Amino acid sequence: MELTNEISILKGIGKKTSDYFKKIGVVTVADLINYRPSGYKVYTDWVNIADVDFEGVFAIRARITAPLVKRTTKNQKSVVLCKVADETGDMSIIWFNSAYLCSVLKAGMVFVFYGKIKKDGNTYVMEHPEYFPTNKYRELTKTLYPVYSKTKGLSNKTIVKAISQVIESYPIETLDFFDEKFLNKYSLCDYEYALNNIHFPFSKEAYTKAKERLTFDDFFIFLSMIRLMKDSSRQIDNNFRIKKWSIAESVINKLPFELTDAQKKVFKELVKDFSGDYACHRLVEGDVGSGKTIIAILAMIMMAENGYQSALMVPTYVLATQHYKKIKGLFSNLGLTFNVSILTGHTKAKEKREIYEKLESGEIDIIVGTHALITDKVKMKNLSLVITDEQHRFGVNQRSMLADKGEMVHVLAMTATPIPRTLAMILYADMDISLIDKAPSNRLPVKNCVVDTRFRKKSYELIINEVRAGRQAYVICPLVEESENKDLVNVIDYTKMLEEIFPRDIKVSYLHGAMKDEEKEEIMGRFSRNDIQVLVSTTVIEVGIDVANATVMLIENSERFGLAQLHQIRGRIGRGAHQSYCIFMSPFLHNEKTKERLDIVNKSTDGFEISNKDLDLRGSGDILGTVQSGFLEFNTTDIYENADIIKKVSLAVEDYFGNEEDKERVFKKIEQRFGNIDSLKEKFLSSF
Ligand SMILES: Nc1ncnc2c1ncn2[C@@H]1O[C@H](COP(=O)(O)OP(=O)(O)OP(=O)(O)O)[C@@H](O)[C@H]1O
């Protein structure tokens, strides 16, 4: 048997069955062994019938007390009824469409019945259970039984049988990538053991070992591919090598704050990239408010200092304006004469023409903007650096459309999405990664609370007190206009209500997505000058808004938001030296799930931890769905859950890439297990 053979060479798999297998993506023998269980059935120890006092899946060990009876229900379904008893009580069992059982199961026989127990009036009924002789069941409780994703016409049993055939007759050990020395070094079991125990775990411990090994393999292949890609993108020469960066350094010394160690490290990495042999391709990842903007500014100063142009592209007009103003302000304070401009969809036609000209002539050193930057009209004399504020708003395509306005430019991407470094390596395969892992030290941790609406009055008092102390506040509501759902609060009415409650001198205003960009920008401008003290807003403020004087965040209907989003929203406060307060308000705190979710953001201010826990609650499908598209399916793998393994894998990949012989051997094995490396690479690339 070859792994490339179609599965029809297996016993018991005819044309019809192999067609069903095709529907679940299994065509060849290789597909079959890589088709991993979607879950496992755990056969729990049996319980006394008397102890069953809630619905659920149970095992009971009981004697059949009377001959089985066949009935037909009102809607013509055939059911079989069975009475059973143990020392503690009796119970009814019902099977559907299984008339044959009447001649198999006889009064007096003892079995372990395993199935769902439901309440029926005052009694409990077991529905359609499996049944096993006692000894067989005892064996089953020690193991996990695989459950595969099926398709109509293809039973779990058929899949189990097919996989067992391959495992029994194929020399699985020949597919191992690694030798004993390597396996020992990374404390891994061998591949044969792993494959056996992922499909048919001998014990729970064996399953854990197997899962760990296969997860390792998945990531090993994945990261090897990334490494290959990186090797090829590394070859891009640095066309814009900087020779000096003393102005950037003097800016650092004159800033009103000292850069954090994390920021200093990233700055050094950038100097090294920009002055090195190859073009920079770097992702800067830092939690909300960690201080990424100044890094972007310093990078652009370095380029300007060497006579090159740079572009900063952000997702919204408001954000572009904020960055532009910040850069202008900083330059004028420090007496820097570099030419900075802003280009957005709202720039007036005449002004636009001037900007296009100045970009083409090289007069503008730094251009900040939105998507407007990628139009054909924008031509740049010597664009050398492209910075994008990722936040998942720009695809790789847009990033490269801007980059294409220069000749193999440096690329710097910024993100606040709290993804573990290893996952970032997958999402941003071709990039180096810098982490800003510590927030500036002048910050006091935000004080949080989760409260129901009875706390509203107190929240308003807190807001008034903070405003009196010179600070400002945000109130976030999920919807804009009159809402059909009375439980949700709308921004405009809310603002009116606050205006009535708050003393006259406290200026309240609102912001929502349906407003015109210029209106939004005008309101944000007034808020950042403290002309407005309380801003009632939808989540339009979520990304990047920076008003360090704002210290209160009241989030109405906080149950409506995702946890990562709540973290982003909260990130708008706690950005300065003053104590900040975040109030997660919800009328649904009696719901345990809601409370449990909100407690996560309440207790943690670490974006990475919050995402992790959010994933635990929601399952990882959402995030992994995009990562795995079209490539290896990490179906035994959850990137977040396996962060430790991934770290180990990165080391292992580095190990291998240092050694040509090992590398070749491993790639041969990968090919053997999955097919040709080039096609694998192609699949990999197309999944981005
Ligand atoms: N080292 C530092 N010490 C003190 N304050 C700093 C430091 N670095 C940046 N800041 C200030 O912290 C605030 C947040 O920084 P910045 O806007 O760059 O955050 P960010 O990482 O872009 O966050 P977000 O992803 O939320 O937009 C700004 O007001 C900035 O001036």
TrEMBL record:
Q: Which SUPFAM superfamilies match?
A: Nucleic acid-binding proteins (SSF50249), P-loop containing nucleoside triphosphate hydrolases (SSF52540)
E.C. number(s) listed in UniProt = 5.6.2.4
Q: What Gene Ontology molecular function terms does this protein carry?
A: 3'-5' DNA helicase activity; ATP binding; ATP hydrolysis activity; DNA binding
Q: Which residues form the Helicase ATP-binding domain?
A: 273-436
Write down the Pfam families for this protein, in alphabetical order: DEAD, Helicase_C, RecG_dom3_C, RecG_wedge
Looking up Gene3D superfamilies in the UniProt record yields: Nucleic acid-binding proteins (2.40.50.140), P-loop containing nucleotide triphosphate hydrolases (3.40.50.300)
Which GO BP terms apply?
A: DNA recombination; DNA repair
- The entry's keywords: ATP-binding, DNA damage, DNA recombination, DNA repair, DNA-binding, Helicase, Hydrolase, Isomerase, Nucleotide-binding
Which reactions are catalysed by this chain? Couples ATP hydrolysis with the unwinding of duplex DNA by translocating in the 3'-5' direction; ATP + H2O = ADP + phosphate + H(+)
Q: What does this protein do?
A: Plays a critical role in recombination and DNA repair. Helps process Holliday junction intermediates to mature products by catalyzing branch migration. Has replication fork regression activity, unwinds stalled or blocked replication forks to make a HJ that can be resolved. Has a DNA unwinding activity characteristic of a DNA helicase with 3'-5' polarity.
Give the UniProt family note.
Belongs to the helicase family. RecG subfamily.
Protein name per Swiss-Prot or TrEMBL: ATP-dependent DNA helicase RecG
Q: What is the lineage of its organism?
A: Bacteria, Bacillati, Bacillota, Clostridia, Lachnospirales
